[in-house]
Here is the input.
Amino acid sequence: MSIADEEQAEQVARIRSTSRGRVVAGRFFRMRQGRLGFALLALMFVLAFAGPHLTHWTYTDQDFTAFLQPPSARHYWGTLQTGADVFAVTLRGMQKSLIVGLLVAVIATALAAVVGAFAGYFLGWTDRVLMWAVDLLLVLPGFLILAIMSPLFAGGAWLLFVIMLALFLWMITAKVVRGMTVSLKEREFVSAARFMGVPAPTIIFRHIIPNLSSLLIVDATLNVSAAILTETTLSYFGFGIQPPDVSLGSLIADGSKTAVFAPWTFWFAAGLLMVTVLAVNLIGDSLRDAYDPTAARAS
Here is the structure.
């Protein structure tokens, strides 16, 4: 096969990939739960990033004339015990939770794809070493390690928290990717690339991983909700996003103390968390069905 033939084959593969993407998108938006999940998640993003412009309060402001006040024209969602505006603080926490969820999902899925594909393609010692690292991370107590490292997450070092959280969310997917790679490496297009002398890393990134895109996209989507819930749980116990920044988890932890007699301090953050996780799960389930042509809902 000449270089021109290889380029033509790659162009045909790109066209097929684009066509498949349109088919999957069509299936996705034909599902009621897919449309609902997409609309809800879009609404959450618009509210989180455009909502703060609807009020003159910021999440660091304090109104010393309104402590623990119910919703009003001055404070749309009321105030906290400190006089902070619940609307501004909650949207700030939602921004942080959404960003953390997306970044963790992207990093975890990318790491799983690379490690699993290299282990499944090379096998031998590469497979043993990489899978040993995966098995080691599976038995490590991630919650305890993150709790011990929580003092390092203060002072705006939330990106370190994102990286550490992502390190404990990719191992199962890596094992699945490894098994699928072992099967894919025997396919004709991979054998042809090897016969032409294409380097192994190029084959992995150009042929193996793109053919696992359906699994990886669905996994990344589901990792978003897993990361948001994990971040919320850690922040609830004080081990996640550290003050002066906030997240939905820290807001729910603080609001739980006053939820009985001042429900606006708790239920706005809890409600947004439930809607966001529900939307992401609906999108993940719909994507899974859209990529599976045999699924009843997709058909």
User: Anything to note?
Assistant: The first helix runs from residue 3 to 30. Residues 1-6 have pLDDT under 50 and may be disordered.
